[in-house]
Amino acid sequence: MTIELSPDLQAMLKDKTELIPAIAQDAATGEVLMLAYMNQESLAITIESGRATYWSRSRDELWEKGATSGHTQKVISIALDCDGDALLLRVEQIGAACHTGDHTCFHREIESHKL
Amino acid sequence: MTIELSPDLQAMLKDKTELIPAIAQDAATGEVLMLAYMNQESLAITIESGRATYWSRSRDELWEKGATSGHTQKVISIALDCDGDALLLRVEQIGAACHTGDHTCFHREIESHKL
Question: How many contacts does A have with B, using Cβ atoms within 8 A?
Answer without folding.
Answer: 116
